[in-house]
Amino acid sequence: MSLAEQFLSNIPGSPLLQLRNLDQRYALLRQDTSSPPQVIHLSSETLGELDADVVICGGTLGILLAASLQQKGQKVILLERGTLRGRQQEWNVSRAELNVLLELDLLTTEELETAIVTEYNPARISFFQGHELFVKDILNIGVYPLDLLEKLKEKFLLFGGKILENTPFISALILSDGIKIIAGDYQLKSRLLVDAMGHFSPIVKQARRGTKPTGICLVVGTCAQGYPNNQTGDLLVTNTPILNQCQYFWEAFPAQDGRTTYLFTYVDAEPERFSLEFLTEEYLRLLPDYQQIDLDALNFQRFLCGFFPSYQNSPLQMPYSRILAVGDSAASQSPVSFGGFGAMLRHLQRLSNGIDEALKTDHLTQKDLALLQPYQPNLSVTWLFQKTMSVGLNQTVDPNQINHLMSTVFLSMEQLGEDVLKPFLQDVIGFSALTKILTAVPLQSVLPIVPQIGLLPLLDWLRHYLSLGLYNQLYLLGKNIETKPPFVEQYYWHRLLESWQYGSGSDYHQALGEK
Ligand SMILES: Cc1cc2nc3c(=O)[nH]c(=O)nc-3n(C[C@H](O)[C@H](O)[C@H](O)COP(=O)(O)OP(=O)(O)OC[C@H]3O[C@@H](n4cnc5c(N)ncnc54)[C@H](O)[C@@H]3O)c2cc1C
């Protein structure tokens, strides 16, 4: 029996089965051969009477949008294949990101505070044989999904929304005046379908035509009791050089029932890459050194695992009218983060206002809806960061290259100050901060990674970096224009402004109430 098998057989539930099922999906994703399901069909017929303005498929993050749209007066039906229920394990976010739930009037301050179950400071960033620094107020809030989703569910029902649980989405037919959705035993007629079915949404598989992801983040972890020190967290820690053609990273958070520790790494989608079960072995082998504790001293509450495919073509613009992807299915978070809840919070205001406006003004064509998931240069520039943190299967690189680079970059960012460091740690990359980092990091630390990344990806990155500068300027100009230019429709003008704002990371300071 391997260490992972032995360990997982002692944890309640069936974590070994869960892990092996996930490994099977991970293996399938890395094969080229799987033909995507055909769940979206087109027809020129008309639909007639409607059941809803919006049908949202997938309840985890879907409920946030459902509650907000229903509150704005749209008629919303939320479909969930299982029971609409948040998971046991906290989501870690920064406090400012949660304000949107108050601004949209979805929760009261008291309701939000009861969903917040942990708060800690500071968090450590540290690299093997390299620099160590501490930051405050970043991803230091633990929200209890079970509680949060229950409250949002109550609100949604109170606003008049309808939830169909144990009702899986099966297929949809796009017609000239609406969309017919087949789900469980239902046939629902709606004006818009919002896909919130996560990374493995059948609609996304069809839309991406079975394309393999560009990168994958693998994560395994546990929540356990028995750690003598559980007052602080770790945002990014390494305690090894490159091993098995990848760099391992650690994250740790105080949790309401113990301490959560994650081991994660970035890999490509090659079939020869190791499994999540192997990563679990590595987690168990390296955890004692990382947390300076014996495994026997810990009382494990639960095992956690996942993998996050990321596509260079993100966020996903659906190739269909009347369908919009949100949350993980849209791949709207940065490829270096697995903070999909945080990313949804960041875009919630923009998405709910935009969808509401699209419905009110009947802008539901493919082109109209694509503007709700626009190109965002500040997301695209993060591709290079993922590349610098991963190694190709057949590449030979200095085992300490990633640690050395990360250590140097974080030292420079620390010296540049919180204005540069904090947004970066929350996946918000602005032009001015990025330019400061580029000029501060010594050239001799960057040059060795050029062969690791390749010249073409670097040139492509330069394009996104220049677009980031352009979007920044366009937003500065655009936000001061009091009335929209006469040659642009209101709906398009709003989307244009948002794409400049969010695409340049300018929403970050506004979320903090700054100018
Ligand atoms: C180990 C781990 C730790 C994480 N930690 C954090 C964190 O600290 N902070 C953070 O911000 N994020 C974190 N995340 C990410 C976060 O959990 C995800 O981004 C979030 O759950 C995405 O929600 P989603 O609704 O888009 O997709 P999913 O979570 O995949 O949910 C999809 C929903 O759609 C439903 N569904 C699927 N198929 C169908 C169908 N055919 N019909 C109807 N319904 C369907 C599913 O049942 C599910 O409810 C973590 C993720 C993992 C795995």
Describe the protein.
There is one protein chain. The longest helix has 24 residues. Strands 1, 2, 3, 9, 10, 11, 12 and 18 form an 8-stranded mixed sheet that branches. The chain has a 7-stranded mixed sheet with strand order 7-6-14-15-16-13-17, with helices on both faces. It has a 3-stranded antiparallel sheet with strand order 4-8-5. It has 515 residues and is of the alpha/beta class. 45% of the residues are buried. The mean pLDDT is 94. It has 20 helices and 18 strands. The protein folds into 3 domains: 126 residues, D-Amino Acid Oxidase, Chain A, domain 2, CATH 3.30.9; 203 residues, FAD/NAD(P)-binding domain (3-Layer(bba) Sandwich); 135 residues, no CATH class. The structure holds flavin-adenine dinucleotide.
Short description:
By secondary structure, this protein is an alpha/beta fold. It contains 20 helices and 18 strands. The relative contact order is 0.13.
